[in-house]
Amino acid sequence: MKFNYKLHRLCGASYGTPAATGSSILSSSSKGSNIVFTSDGNSVLSPVGNRIQVLDLLHHSCRTLPIEARSNIRRIALSPGDDRLLIVVDVNHYAMLVNFHRGVILHRFKFKHPVRDMKFSPDGSKFAVSAGKYVQVWFTPGIRREFAPMVLHRKYTGLAGDVTTLDWSSDSSILIAGGKDCMARVWTVDTVKDYKPWMMVGHKKPLVGVHFEDSDRINDRNQFFSGAGNTGSTLTGKLVARCYTISEDGVIVTRECRKEEDGEVNPEDADNEQSNGLENLGNDAVDFFSGGGNTLTAQQPTKTKDTDQAHAIVKARWGNTSRHYFSTNSSSNTVVSTSYSSAHSLLVVGFSTGRFGLYELPSMSNIHTLSLSHSTIGTVSINPSAEWLAFGCPKTQQLLIWEWRSESYILKQSGHAYGMRCLAYSPDGIVVATGGEDGTVKLWNSHSGFCYVTLPKSHTAAVTAVEFANSTVVLSASLDGTVRAHDLHRYRNFKTYTSDTPCQFLSMAVDKSGEIVCAGSAEPFRVCVWSVQTGKLTDVLTGHLGPISGLAFHPIRGTLASASWDGSVKVWDLYKSDGGSAPETFENGADVVCLAFRPDGNQICSGNIRGLLRLWNVDDGRLICEIDGQKDIKGGRKLNDRMTSDNNAASRYFTSIVYSADGTCLLAGGNSKYVCIYEISQQILLKKFQISFNRSLDGVLDELHSKNLGDGGPLDDEHDSADDEVNFAPHLPGAKRADDGSRKSRVEVLTMQVAFSPTGREWSTVSGEGLHVYSLDDDMIFDPIALTEAVTPSAVQVNLKNRKYGMALSMSLHLNEFALVKTVIEDTPYESISAVVRSVGQAHLNQLIQFLSKCMEDSPHVEYYLQWCLALLQTHGIFMEKNRGKFLRNTTSPTSAVNWPSSAIPFIAERGARGFDGIANENQRTQRHLFSVVTVHSLSVQRSCPTLRKDGAQLTSLWAAESESKLEHGDAKSNAPSKSSVAGAGSWRSKAKEFQQTLHDRPETSNSDRKLNIAFVTGNAMKQKEINTILSKHGATAGLNGESYVNLRILDVDLPEIQEINTEAIAKNKAIQGAQLAGGACVVEDTSLEFSALGGMPGPFIKWFQDSLGCEGLYKTLIGFEDKNATAVCTLAFCSYPHADPVLFTGRCTGKIVEPVLGRGFGWDSIFVPDGETEPFSCMSTEKKCDLSHRSKAVVQWAEWLGKNVDELWERQQGRPAIGHRGLNFKPSSTEQ
Prior knowledge:
The structure is a single chain. The protein has 1233 residues and is α+β, with helices and mostly antiparallel strands. The protein is built from 24 helices and 65 strands. The strands form 16 sheets. Strands 59, 60, 61, 62, 63, 64 and 65 form a 7-stranded mixed beta sheet that branches. A 4-stranded antiparallel beta sheet has the order 1-58-57-56, with no helix packed on it. The two termini are 37 Å apart.
């Protein structure tokens, strides 16, 4: 198992900082951090806590940059043009210089004053920072690591209050800043002779936005003052600059800078009219040495002047031309944020009431006004093309991307109101369901990282557990005392489960079949058991003396394990006839807070408050080993702790544990900043992950600063916001939800739950910051095994050119470059795939499957890649089965890659793209092929991993559901595959429906006429005849004696078979499929023929040998051997109801292989002569063959077993609880969806 997991993305929050549960820490004036668009306008950078989310709006994906700030991020800035540099500043003034494309931190430094605004110049050569009352301009460093990359250009002063906003002119020569002193000031970036900074007044509230208009637009609209401005200004002259200042009270003032024309001379400047070449040369010298002018030239000594706006505003005058008001009631509608597109003259304004407005300047025409939320819009941004508007609401952690022309959402994301509490992966690993403190359940796409639906709120308290019953049903338990079932097709709550007495549910579990759901309560201390379909409370399990902290179902059997604060773990058998029998109890010696079953069900792990993980043998109740994790998980001193982290027992135990997919490792998390992975057999810590380094969270630091320790305990003087009006007050000790008297409380760093993805390639944990997803998918490690000088990328291309595809693939796998491997895979002809796969060594199978899975994620060639998967299973299936633990993780990934487009359908419809029906009409043949191939071969994929059986069934039902209507009404015959097994697979559902309808229409059976309705699922008519003959002889079906207890109906379907050398495994798998198709009891049969000379081959593969070689070819395979002995084996599997464990009956017949003798038999009857006989089966009568054959021996055993258990089976068929249970364990009745 690999352990180089890395944080892939942070889900659950797309903007803002995590808020303490129940607290209201953000005032109406709190702005949060800013949002930035990339230069192409297709991606958004959104700070979340101390991390940055990059949201790709074109590809609808999200990733988290692999960097972390020291505290919550206050401001970010991205260099224009190439987006190469990103500057990040946190709330404590610490900054990072980051290479954005590579995600590498180049330099760290600290500003000495609060930073409220920061912007790069339009040419990218400098960036300006508001540092307290000053504005600092720094030179933009390079992308290489340097000892001192930060070089200060100049510091600008003149404002009496802290600077809150700033802006650059379009040519990067002028800088304007506004502050809390209600004034704005204009500076030239470089020293310009005779220029004096201009102070702008006229506002009564602090400024929230200052913006320059583009110089090109000024030149296009160059006009003169009319002399009738509302400020009374009588300035005339050429317009050289225009800016806008916006204050909190909703006032926007337009200011213009005008300069007298060359023919007009002010009286005060009359003495300075004459200038000579020496003065001009002096001006150029000032510009040269200040860095703002052009290089000195003797030919043009006077052209430096008026080449940029900085020189144009010299001796010019600023005046107010207009004043506008956004709202008449400015006290309740405060302006919080602004953004301006100078190239399009569009201004976006966000208000404290959750409303925004879009205006065209300078006319102040209102283009658009919309109310987005009830909370403050903390930041707004407009992309370079001025088409998309981004809004961030810090209080609700909501991010919205709005297209104002079409008036539609491009993206709308928000997390849980007070944080997440629990999570669960869907069976295919594509969907993640999370429950929050606000009582909502959200569904996240694990590929894109976005929340695609919030289920209608039905819980009135925090959600404590979520589980998937199947791929379409998710269950949630809550403190409000209900368990609710949600339909993922219609997104509604279709069933609610309640207890007979009011209680709060802390834990929940669903059995593997999805028919039983259990929930454990806090008080009274009991476990409630419901039927998922009927919603009835079927049982109540009592015996614990404390709250039920954890529940888990056995992965295979119907066994339930419960953990409690009373220090015990109890194992219950829910399907025993004597339901009142005492459960098996495992004593732990301390309060048990977490519980988990190993995937094979043979081991159970429990964790207690002493930090011990105890592993038990489920069968005999023996304690296998203990893992002491106190020292591994300890760490982090909280603000109100009165002791050090080493002595604090509250954070030294695990609250959530889960096994890895192969069962060799254990993932554990708890009330700490660490998540640990343990190796079970060696009982050692393999790796420890720290989920966050954000110092704004409580419990990140192991030691608090000594200067902040007082007599009454720790006192933290560091604020999580740069706004002075937000104050900090410690909450009462032990108050998790923030007491009413506190204005602010810190979010505690801890992990509420951990979970492994079914694919095994990622795991997730829920913390106060959201859902942390750690993945291996982006990790490609160079593998130097078997490398020589001849193995090069050019050699791979040469082999491709020479059509040596197998050699090219082998070389590319050794080089381990994804782009190269993908090129080889997609250049391989369809008909050569099988031959190329045979050339792949066993050492590179895992690697090839991983590459195929990654290629399938975004490739349209689904059929082509499924052929690769099929060839892999046919060639290396036996080896993969013997090493199923090694291939467990990667074998599920192809299933996920095929399944994930189904979750994208809502997005296609929402964005107005072509509907899925239109796409399906254009790709009917691909759908037919997918349905056929997946149906026939999905069980082959499952073969290498037992845990994939459910995934395979879901994969089959997915494509069947989406394409069933298309196949039945389209031209299915012309494009159907030629093989009978593939063609027959498309009619499974129709045949099963007809069969179930026949059983439904049959009149109800009376007690006096007890007959079992059993389906015999087979595609061989001769087998049907033989089994009917054998059963009638033994009275099981209507025969000579006239009495019978079995109604044997034939379901003519040729079931697909897994590639397995064990006939019992094949028969079991076919029986499970048959029971689901028939909707009730069924029997299937599998036959094998074992040649002694060939070591038991062909065995169960005799069907394919017979089809390929015929009887003559089978006989010729033994011509060179003296030993002609053979054994015919028939395995009969009976399944009493869907999802039941099949009962097996085996019959054997020994004999010899002879030359084919034509007769009435079928299959290989013409070459097999039983011992003691002189003629093969093909020459015998049907009655004689039924007395001697292997099939008759198996059927006789089955008939005898049916006779002994007919009463129990009949009771089961009538839907009543079975009586007696002579060796049978029945589950509650179910209806196949």
